[in-house]
Amino acid sequence: MTSTTSTTSATPGGDRDPELPGRLLATERDTLVPLLRARPDQDFALPVAACPGWSVRDVLAHCSAVLTRVVESRFEEGVFSPESNDRDIAERAEWPNARILDELERGMTGAGPVIAEAGGALDMVGLGEWVHAGDVREALGEPGAYGGAGLPDALTLLVRRTAQKGHVPLQADLDDMDEPLRLGGVSGERTPARFIGDAATLVRLYAGRPVGGASYELAGAEEGELNLFG
Fold it and tell me: What's this model's pTM, rounded to 2 decimal places?
């Protein structure tokens, strides 16, 4: 991966860029959807290690359903719970794979403006969809899981979200970025932990995904403490 200069190290969780989640979704749409359309149907039945019990198709159905809900502003009680997610997947059980991809592509296109207008309440949808795209890439054996062109925007969302939540303070010295990232809260009550490694591994830790034997150093915090989705 080429070196990328970070703009998020100085002001973790700083001013919100309302267009960023939509930009992240569009970047992933332009690379992931063509890749998926070129895969044979049997690949959609492959298991996704990051989402036990779900296949590639299930993850994609979940992602397309979430984005459709965002576009249509359908947020009934219990939305995005495990039960709601399972219902969304079941509703698409008879759809051909191409229809799921069509819905996913529309959602990745249309959700951005809605997220931008939501004032930050839906920003994590963009990051979550991008992480799931990494889950799918890994299940298919494709390179670039939790990386690629969208990584800088994903890291910006990650920095902002960990700051908002007062998460474990951490300085990340990344092999593939020029400047360190500062994540988490800034209360001063805890000495910042230190991560040394590549950005994709950092994303895996914060997303609660297997690190796959990656080489990295983490001091001052346990792996599980970083998980934002646990």
Answer: 0.91
